[in-house]
Structure formats: C-alpha cells, structure tokens
Amino acid sequence: MNKITTVPCPTCKKTVEWGEQSPFRPFCSKRCQLIDLGEWADEEKRIPGDPAWLPDQDDENEV
Length: 63
Fold this sequence. Notes:
Elements: E1 6-8, E2 15-17, H1 30-41, H2 58-61
Antiparallel strand pairs: 1-2
C-alpha cells in the first residue's frame, strides 16, 4: 500500500502531492514558486540571526 504524502503550498496553501507528478513541490505551481522567491529577494522573508557578512565590513574581509 502506497501512502500519498501531501503538503500545503507555502504561498497559497493549496494541497500538493509530494512526488514526481508535482515538479514545483512544495509549491503548487511555478507562479507560487516565483512569488516565494520574490519575497526572499525583497527581504520580506529572512532567517533570524546575525548576518555572516556586512557590506560596511569589506575592508575587514580582505586578506
């Protein structure tokens, strides 16, 4: 018996089957995938913590 795993699309919350038939998983579509990417690029989403590199530290990062 094969159990079908489903997950909610992170963007629109539509149910997505986790498998080869869903090439954009965990997203339901390319559109939702691109919306999510845009949110990361615009820094609307971010991982909490100190940044590994700051632009004003350029001189400190050179060897």
